Fold each of these.
Amino acid sequence: MQQRLARPLVVVLGVCTYLVAGSMTVTAGDVPAGFINHGILAPVGQAAWNGVVATADAEGNPLIFVKFWGGTEDHQTYYLLIDARTGETDQVDLGHTGRHGGAWDIFLSPDNKLYDTLGPPNEHVLVEFDIATRTLSEIAQLPASVQRIVTFTIDDDGIIWAASDPGAELFSLDPKTRELVNHGAMAEKTWRQYPTLAADDRGWVYATIVFQEGSILAYNSVTGERRELLAPERRASTTKTSIWRATDGAVYAHLDSDKQWYRLHQGEITPVDEPLRDTAVYGNTTTTPGHFPDGSRYASIDVPNRRAFIIDAGAEQPRRIDFTYTGSAKPIYSMIEGPDGLIYGSSAIPLRVFRFDPATGESANWGLGSHGGHVNQWVRQGDKLYGIVYGDGDLIEYDPSEPFDDAAIRVSANPRRIHGGGEAQRLYGRPLAALAHPDGDHVLMSGIPYRGDVGAGLYIYNVRTAEEQVLRPEDLIADQGIQAMAALPDGDVLLGSTTDPGTGGTRVATEAVIARLDWETRTIAETWVPVPGASSITDLIVPRDGLIYGLAPGGVFFVLDPETGELIHTETITEYGGMTGT
């Protein structure tokens, strides 16, 4: 492997409070007194969400290009160029622009130039990477309103189009002159829209948008006219869309909430039956995804486990190549002591579950297939560990005494998926809180919706009988999610709320509360507002004295008596540093 200017980072593993407080990246000399640096527990990375393309070098040799998220915010992004014949890897350091993740999407032009944006949110720089010469050049600084570019496409004149999060601003780039034009927002919406673009053969650029209200937008690249094509009565909360340019010159689009396919052409929308997918322009390239110019293709690539499977031209069976890279520290989201006295936890993007033996210093890590999320919290009930997983509202059960099955979350035998997907995504797709109930039988999970909605559900699972119960938002706290949970001595459950909606949603409630859930009736018995105006209750514990101790944003620490509802103590503790959950 060749690597230029790589600067590996490490994560300190000390006591749990230290790691949970921030997954700090440090050098050996920065380790605080009393801590031991045990190194990086999961030195892996993953591709950006739409960050892999098949291409070739200047001599025509097949290459897999990967926009590689392989570190922390101090140096997050690299480019990997993997020789599809041998696995030999060139890891390209991107300098100061690689310090952050940049765009989720990339685009490979017909002349083998790669377009991307790099840099921190609201400071993105549009860049061009020449595959043949392996050189990076900056084209333009994007406006501060752009948090990230989330989609690219190309039109028939070779103009590259891009759109941004959160406001669906539309940009065009002429690769020949390198002129970048900001065309403004495609529509005036108040929520994050995550647009996806495609262009027809008549100068119109289209976007699907998602979350609070899915829709289809159109922009005339000649006149600047904007249209919202989807009828108001068909716009609804949406998380997934499909939009693509076909060989007939039109664009076809579909929203999961609408269940209707549409043909988009010359700024007009026509309902159609589901079309054959004769795609002319794909998500990040004009060539067939995964196919190299020499007729070979990659069947799959597993970046965390450093392997890919290649099907050579004329071959029927894939062959494996192994590649290399230097992965640096990834954020650790959660840790827990297992029933065997070892430390278990999860790092994120990609999801890796690690095991660490504090006596020997030995460690191991595994994934859940190519899962790019994170286990937001672990709890232990009996001799098993239960994790809540971002994205689908998944609850997983892990038996540390059995081998770890590094397979996709839906099929892994250990951890096995107990619950998730479907309605769970809308109730607690971004799970924030888990609780092992003191009755020894139940595990609880809650959070906020994955996308677009407000209000949360509560999932209750009996680990002995496998019985399930789901409480819905109308049963809990109106228009609020749940960020923290704890149990009182009598078994009642405390729910610390958050006013945050799912991504792309609109906040409705004005202040967070603590709600007391009667464990016998599974109904809300009473609520308190410990910190007026606070947006969230970020943590709760109930020690032996039976009082409620909690944290809120802004470094607020409070103590509340659940018997009287009296707020016993409150103070700001920012002098001690930052807090978890904020």
Amino acid sequence: MSGERTEAPTPRRVSDARAEGRVARSMELSGAAGLLAGVWLLQIFGQQMVEGLKGILSASFQSVSNLSAPDLGAQAGALLPLIPSLGFILLGVMVTGVSVNFAQTGLLWASKRIGFDFTRLNPL
């Protein structure tokens, strides 16, 4: 038999496939949307992050001659102001990915897809 179907699937087959998590969705669309969101958010928060990194680097290079273990901890603490900017970027990319997948499949919770299937492993 050929792989092409001549008739549309029955509503029962469609609902069974959806319940098993077998739905058509594009991984490339999610990746492209996440990439665009990341670039856009970097344009917004990137300058702030670069200025923070410049300050950290200049302070590190000025105090490199008299470094001790407590100073290293203080320099690591200097990275804390970068966390909000980085958090907004990561959160924005994550929300974009979830939104694109939701737009493609709708609200879909397929518990059968969560399990691990050993038959899908290929040792070669």
Amino acid sequence: MKDEPAKDDANVLSADDVARLSKLAYARQFPARAVIVTEGEETDALYVILEGRAKAYVSDAAGKEAVLSIMGPGEYFGELSIDERPRSASVMTLEPARLLVIPNEKFRAFLAEDPEFTLHFIRKLMHRIRELTKLVGSLTLLDAYGRVARLLLESAVEENGVQVVPGRLTQADVASRVGCSREMVSRIFKELTRGGYIVVDGEHRITIVKRPPDKW
């Protein structure tokens, strides 16, 4: 598994966890923009990202998307498949990616045999529920600027003494994650750049120079 700054350790499996799960799984390579699972499909496996990044999202009949999360190495999805109900979101790779695929029946048997891991896994699920609660609150209570600022701050990791948002995060990505138009995000980015709060390079890599104000 490639080293990469973790957005949030509570969402990332340890190397030991990945090694244990790999004994139940097989690895698959996916190209960029491959839809790995589709919202509403029958569930059959848990996936762990070894290399690359993917996005979890929901969409409507008109093709409008809302991105729920961007995931990287050590993160997993499909955990809700253990209840054998249809998938609640789609997942697409953002770049070439290598994943572990763990069939449901093997994962359920593993949980039954290893209560320590099961408790650890439940804690991770609870953390995700809290994150989704925060997302709903953000969409409901914050204006567009507040949602963009919160996304940047919560996505950033420390790198060489500065706060950097890992990977490429385009304005279109931000718009789909915070529920507003790309044009609105563009205006907010211009104001944040003009105010000296962020720097965006040609690779869409965002550095937070100083904390953006709570309100604009």
Amino acid sequence: SHNRLNGLHASISNCRLLSRLNLASNLFSSIPPVVCTLTAMTDLRFERNELTVLTPLIGNLVELRMFDISENKLETLPRTIGNLSALVELNCNDNNISSLPPSLKDLFSIQRINISSNKLKLLPTDVTGLTSLKRLAISGNELQSLPPEVGVMSSLTELLLDGNQLNTLPLSIGRLTELQVLNLDGNRLSLLPPEVAGMTALRELWVHDNKLSVVPEGIADLTNLNVLTLSNNELTVLPANMTRLVSLNELWIKDNNLKSHPFRQGLLPNLRLLLVDMGVKV
């Protein structure tokens, strides 16, 4: 990595047992076809290159577990990426990808996908079939909605959706009972569905910089919450039962239209940070 390579000698095809190849921070405009003959490969890194297209031959690397093509200039992923059934982690953040192939649903082993900072307007329903997925990062795209079936992604522990254009959340989101981190900062949400109360494993809920006018009372059931950000919304009142959130370490409620809040000193014994506007009464 960190050279000025833009090609590879054909003799690398003799390295039949090569399992890891790091060509990050070079000048490749495409992945050389010879790389796709190295079928023992488990870890392939091409981040920070000049990739504009991904060869369909990538589907030959059926042992691949880690594939990093982040920070390139890709606009699409080939259908053959679905052949990578051993893949555990896929990083394709910071590209120009505007759609995902349906074959993504065939990544049966996938646990982590980062497709942040692209141009996705739609998250295809096929993605919700990835029941092994633990971390899904789609920050900084152009999503306006999520598939109604998102709740079937029962293994998810981290879902990053900040910096999109979401107006609503599907009711099924409450079925993500393993979810620990949900980041919705910087969207256009005017409400959280009452079903969020079902995400009882949640430790961090980020909803800063939205259009929330109300917080559902069910949020008080999220008693494992350590971090809750509700700042820069349109809230005028907070549910009194939020004092049940006794695990909170951080609570952000500034830049709203609040006149008061229910968090008298001592009610939240683990609270280390409370961000609230001057003059808001207890």
